[in-house]
Amino acid sequence: MNNVSVITMFFLSGFNETISHRFVLFFLSLLCYCIICLVNVSLIVIIILDSNLHESMYILLCVFCMNALYGTAGFFPRFLWDLLSDVHLISYYGCFIQAQVVYSFACGELSILALMAYDRYVAICQPLKYHSIMSKQRVIRFACFSWFTTFCIMAVNTFLTFRLKLCSPYISRLFCVNWSIVQLACFPAQTTINAIVANITISIYFLHGVFIVWSYMYIIQTCVKSIENRAKFMQTCVPHLVSLFTFVVTMLLDIINMRLGSKELPRTLQNFAAIEFLVIPPIMNPLMYGFKLTKIRKRIYSVIISKTNVQKRKKHSLNVLNQKQRVCFKM
């Protein structure tokens, strides 16, 4: 069925509670986005430029950071603009694009976490086969396939929403979400297929979570038997588990707020629950991996030390030059 909606713009009513503090929120949000870009781009550049980090675990971490940049680019620029605007409007097509980007990022995050869990499973439980199973080319293909599949799954959800006739332009959130648009449909009976596909999508990514749990059951079982494997687990698996826990908690809060949220909750709390998966994981993950993984930590330290040494040499050269100039002046 063709989209016969006459709506050309959406009003994001979630901003109504931010008017009195919008300049403070703008500054904090801009700072947050700058930090996200800095830490993720830094980690990507370090992994790409250092040939010693061209291993499957670090390649997946690089993809993880790229996905974070992709998702936050779909939210922060528009969010910052809206904070400074008096009227919070977004175009019809822009709203669907934002919904597609934000939730393909979220589901892509879980897909990459599943790949990282499999990578750790092979590294610890089948170390002799690790380099043959998780070669660089195969890992890149796995990552591209998982992200492309996620994008297509979310595109199906977006298309099914796009075909609906909408009777209200008001979205009670800070950004566009597929399910929030579905709730604006004129005829609820037409949204049945949307609900079915949405539940199938949730089931698919729930199975991703089951796969991760299954992988770690075997990893923990193997690590108990070996001191070397326990050390490897603490170094490489703990950051992954923390990332997984943070992502699951932030997404569950958003889903509960969106599907079951009570209107009695303060709007500020609802807004925080809605955006935290776009703020906390993209900042925390690169920082945690950067300081926990030995190779990356050493690389960061070496860059810092080399810059410090360059500055010291420049300062020393300037001092020597100044001394020579003083000698010449005396003569």
Question: Can you describe what's shown?
Answer:
The chain is globular, with a radius of gyration of 24 Å. With 331 residues, it is an all-alpha fold. The chain is 76% helix and 3% strand. It contains twelve helices and three strands; from the N terminus they run E-H-H-H-E-H-H-H-E-H-H-H-H-H-H. The chain has a three-stranded mixed β-sheet with strand order 2-1-3.
How do the strands and helices of this protein lay out in sequence?
Blueprint: E1 9-12, H1 22-49, H2 56-73, H3 76-84, E2 89-91, H4 92-125, H5 130-133, H6 136-162, E3 170-171, H7 178-182, H8 192-223, H9 227-260, H10 267-275, H11 280-292, H12 294-330
Parallel strand pairs: 1-3
Antiparallel strand pairs: 1-2
